[in-house]
Design a protein that fits this description.
This protein is mainly alpha-helical. It has helices spanning 5-29, 35-46, 52-60, 62-67, 71-75, 105-112, 114-120, 123-140, 143-160, 180-196, 210-238, 260-269, 273-295, 311-326; strands at residues 245-250, 253-258. Strands 1-2 form a two-stranded antiparallel sheet. The chain binds zinc ion.
């Protein structure tokens, strides 16, 4: 076959475009909290902790609840306000247990100003806002809203359980540990959750004081962040340098990942921390759903209205996907 100069230039152009798309895909994979795998799994498993009256609705919509667990991450590609809802750099407010930071949102804004509060993240407050919205949706007996808000509150609750979501050094960027964010919350569960983690958890419980509950989880995350970082550093020093990373083929792309042996060694050193936080996330998500339903007066979920999503809601799902595929985060990067 004779290839003309024009054709080969064309081919080069195409190759270049393909390469850029791959790069973009690689970059995107690293931007998510708990990874898509973790968020979907947490919402999926939370369904089985619900009482029979709720299981009816949630189990028949389990695909939706799992699939849309990642919408809040996709929304970070659409609107700038989304980013801060996923984390809180609580170590920017003095020392543990960060008493300087009022747990009440209005008091915190009055003390530090809205810009500073937003810059350091708002996840414990946002979970409470979502709980109010979900409770209202139950009171209105609006099925579409119940499902959408359940999927999304699950995401924020799970994020609050991730230690590096409560640290300003969220991707090890200040300690030469870039990539540790995705390592802890994506690589470890993707490699080990199905094979080794125990997800027999029990059942959802009523949360008397949701604010106190979520702040307690955030403080646990903050307390664990140092260990997450320190153990990775210690292990790196002990581990043969050429065995820390491996190359894997993902969808036809060669990607550098933390090696299986390094991941297993890190998980062992953490003594089950990732599994524990994942289990606690599942329990918390189910308990928040259950609490919203109780606070709404335990509506009969067999007789709900608004079973179909509105045209606006369907449009939003589509836009979330297309913005996410374009791959540009609006506002601060997560990692
Ligand atoms: Zn997130």
């Amino acid at each position: 076959m004779i290839v003309t100069g024009y054709q080969s230039a064309n081919n080069m152009q195409r190759l270049k475009k393909l390469f850029l798309t791959f790069l973009l895909l690689l970059f995107c994979q690293q931007c998510f909290c708990w990874g898509f795998y973790g968020h979907r799994k947490i919402n999926y498993l939370a369904v089985f902790l619900l009482p029979p009256e709720m299981l009816l609705l949630y189990k028949s919509n389990i695909e939706f609840i799992s699939e849309h667990a990642v919408d809040p991450d996709k929304r970070r590609y659409a609107i700038a306000e989304e980013g801060p809802r996923h984390y809180i750099d609580i170590d920017q407010y003095g020392t543990y247990p960060y008493k300087e930071l009022p747990r009440n949102y209005d008091s915190a804004v009055a003390k530090f100003g809205i810009d500073s509060i937003n810059a350091h993240g708002i996840v414990p407050w946002w979970v409470q806002t979502m709980l109010q919205r979900l409770t209202k949706a139950f009171k209105e007996k609006n099925q579409a809203k119940i499902l959408k808000l359940s999927a999304e509150i699950g995401h924020y609750i799970a994020d609050a359980h991730v230690p590096l979501h409560a640290s300003h050094n969220h991707n090890g960027q200040y300690s030469n540990q870039n990539g540790i964010h995705g390592f802890w919350e994506s690589r470890v569960p993707e490699l080990l959750a199905d094979k080794e983690f125990d997800f027999w958890i029990g059942k959802a419980e009523y949360i008397k004081n949701p604010g106190q509950f979520i702040w307690a989880r955030v403080l646990e995350s903050a307390a664990a962040a140092d260990t997450v970082l320190r153990y990775e550093k210690e292990l790196t020093e002990q581990f043969p340098a050429d065995q820390k990373y491996a190359f894997e083929n993902r969808n036809g792309i060669t990607t550098r990942v933390y090696s299986t042996s390094f991941t297993v060694a890190y998980n062992n050193k953490l003594q089950g921390m990732v599994e524990r936080r994942m289990r606690q996330s599942i329990y918390a998500v189910a308990s928040f759903w259950y609490t919203a339903w109780i606070n709404a007066g335990q509506p009969d979920l067999k007789t709900l209205t608004n079973k179909e999503f509105t045209a606006d809601e369907l449009k939003e799902f589509e836009e979330l996907n297309s913005n996410w595929k374009k791959g540009k985060v609006v506002g601060r990067e997560h990692e």
